[in-house]
Amino acid sequence: MNPELTSPSSSSDRRISVLARHLVGVEMDPQNDSISAFPTSGSDSNSVFSHVVRGPEDPILGVTVAYNKDPSPVKLNLGVGAYRTEEGKPLVLNVVRKAEQLLVNDRSRVKEYLPITGLAEFNKLSAKLMFGANCPAIQENRVTTVQCLSGTGSLRVGAEFLAKHHHQRTIYIPQPTWGNHPKIFTLAGLSVKTYRYYDPATRGLNFQGLVEDLNSAPSGAIVLLHACAHNPTGVDPTSQQWEQIRKLMRSKGLMPFFDSAYQGFASGSLDADAQPVRMFVADGGELLLAQSYAKNMGLYGERIGALSIVCKTADVAGRVESQLKLVIRPMYSNPPIHGASIVAAILKDRDLYNEWTIELKAMADRIISMRQKLFEALHARGTPGDWSHIVKQIGMFTFTGLNSKQVAFMTKEYHIYMTSDGRISMAGLSSKTVPHLADAMHAAVKRVV
């Protein structure tokens, strides 16, 4: 017998070769007993994923993809909802830079895991920001707040909780609404229906349709409400209409689920933009609220938001929080620390908070001024139609009323990128680009039906 075949090293080598073949999918070359990897290229039939079809581009993010490919020097991206300066540049708030510097200089800070519910200080301050400093629900410990991954994550956690624990698993969302809403709620296990919201004829609120549809909803159904600056229309109910909506929903036992992506960013006032939500909290009823700091603090990439659930009693709130933990733990375990620390640093410091409100109002005012400039530019060109809705609508977006053919014309002829429903981000405009947009809109209305 060949002593090499029975030697410990030879036997060990063979075991390693066999083990490698099982663990990493390799073939043995019988000529040299060495390991060679399977081919990494070949026909699709070699892939277990060959049946997978290419998914469509996200209708909003896809606009940016197309914009980036366009070499035109006059191209303009009005699709994605991100604030831009008058020079068309992304903005990092000065107060955010100050807060980050404070965090960097604090040598006691560590990078340990946060609790499942997130940074406690951030949660407490976020609830106070939306519900008010003297909110009875907060004082009575009837509010549970958990840090989530911006507005989208907050909506998803809330939806998962409702799908597991609410007796009515149907949610009514406005028609139209943000394109991600139906996907979030459907994948979480809720049945999605719509209620009338926008009136194309007036380019305003279809309040009668809204009331009729909510009246027809089954008792206990969930209703998604945009806290302010409705996306994509920019059309909000008046205070009187909000009060009617509140009375109707409470009388039918409908569960309000507020999406607040623009507090302070819409009107320039944090308190004014929170009023619809505070109306519902003041009556002692229950509700859910998803908050995002992407827009009002410019923290898009930090993915920082919160989900609050207002309950009837402190005991219920405690039990609800325990179940929210069970939703979050297998989803992403716990949230990131940096963005929450920035927000908490700003909200808890009087000087930083005041500086933030000044910068926030400046952003809101610039968007309002872009609305006025665009309206005046269209009026000066004699563009057919009534464009007063541009200055009546509020927030980051304007629902222009342009149809998909007109949008396609503007993209092809003027290199202006926007969603096919005619929504434009006012935050992406500047004094220099308003004339170009007005020219494109004028041509589209005149030449394309």
From TrEMBL:
This chain belongs to the protein called Aspartate aminotransferase
One CC-aspect GO term: mitochondrion
Boundaries of each Aminotransferase class I/classII large domain copy?
Answer: 75-440
The record lists the catalysed reaction(s) as:
L-aspartate + 2-oxoglutarate = oxaloacetate + L-glutamate
- Misc note: In eukaryotes there are cytoplasmic, mitochondrial and chloroplastic isozymes.
Question: Which EC class, in a word?
Answer: transferase
Keyword terms, alphabetized: Aminotransferase, Pyridoxal phosphate, Transferase
Q: Among the record's GO biological process terms, what is one? A: amino acid metabolic process
Role summary: Important for the metabolism of amino acids and Krebs-cycle related organic acids. In plants, it is involved in nitrogen metabolism and in aspects of carbon and energy metabolism.
One Pfam family this sequence matches: Aminotran_1_2
